[in-house]
């Protein structure tokens, strides 16, 4: 299975909004509303930010939102803050009952 | 609060077998969750290795399936990973994670990760 495609890097100034895309196929992203997003700071374990395309776990800021159109899911961070600087990964369930992660996106706060 | 802790050798010789265990606390491994292994080579992205249910049912990444075995020990509330015929490409931080599947599958709890280096 191939990794989902994400941009290598996205940057923005404090207060701005940025969007990270996650492109797969009809066998994963496009076939199910089972996309989740994870934030990873250097040297730390990933942290769940979004599940089931657009749901936020308790404790995650409402500045984080998710959506999906066709084979592409997106994570939007609004009101960008310095603490949002991290790597972000999408993940999807697949038609083979496996899981696949995205290639990862480094978010830089300018 | 569920906690996961990986343990095992930090150094494995090429062609050998990598063995790791994930101890689960604050919850039962016999709950309605799947239990996964995920790895991350230094400076690279996340790769899903596979998962197990307390019944023993498993799913594996097709690219690793021939070398991977994941097992569960309900009496010790832990699950394990074995990866055979390792090479330098298997050097990575290995994470164990709980997968919530009541509505849709996602990883809600993660271990801190353990670095395994493959080298002679």
From TrEMBL, chain A:
This is IGL c3563_light_IGLV2-14_IGLJ1. Residues 1-101 form the Ig-like domain. SMART domains: IG (SM00409), IGv (SM00406). Gene3D superfamilies: Immunoglobulins (2.60.40.10). It holds the Pfam family V-set. InterPro entries: Ig-like_dom (IPR007110), Ig-like_dom_sf (IPR036179), Ig-like_fold (IPR013783), Ig_sub (IPR003599), Ig_V-set (IPR013106), IgV_Light_Chain (IPR050150). Immunoglobulins are composed of two identical heavy chains and two identical light chains; disulfide-linked. It is found in: Cell membrane; Secreted. Keywords: Adaptive immunity, Cell membrane, Disulfide bond, Immunity, Immunoglobulin, Immunoglobulin domain, Membrane, Secreted. GO terms for biological process: adaptive immune response. Its main location: membrane. One of its GO terms (cellular component) is extracellular region. Transmembrane segments: none annotated.
């Amino acid at each position: 299975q191939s990794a989902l495609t994400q941009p290598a890097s996205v940057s923005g100034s404090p207060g701005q909004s940025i969007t990270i895309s996650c492109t797969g196929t009809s066998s994963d992203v496009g076939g199910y509303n089972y996309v989740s997003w994870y934030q990873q700071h250097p040297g730390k374990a990933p942290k769940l930010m979004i599940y089931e395309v657009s749901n936020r776990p308790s404790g995650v800021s409402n500045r984080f939102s998710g959506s999906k159109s066709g084979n592409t899911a997106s994570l939007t961070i609004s009101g960008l803050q310095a603490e949002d600087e991290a790597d972000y990964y999408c993940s999807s369930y697949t038609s083979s009952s496996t899981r696949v992660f995205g290639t990862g996106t480094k978010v830089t706060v300018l | 609060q569920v906690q996961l802790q990986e343990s095992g050798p930090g150094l494995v010789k090429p062609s050998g077998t990598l063995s790791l265990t994930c101890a689960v606390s604050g919850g039962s491994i016999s709950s309605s969750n799947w239990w996964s292994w995920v790895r991350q080579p230094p400076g690279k992205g996340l790769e899903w290795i596979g998962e197990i249910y307390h019944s023993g049912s498993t799913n594996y990444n097709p690219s690793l399936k021939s070398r991977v075995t994941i097992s569960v020990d309900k009496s010790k509330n832990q699950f394990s990973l074995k990866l055979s015929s390792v090479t330098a490409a298997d050097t990575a931080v290995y994470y164990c994670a709980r997968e919530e599947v009541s509505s849709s599958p996602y990883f809600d709890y993660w271990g801190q990760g353990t670095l395994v280096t493959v080298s002679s």
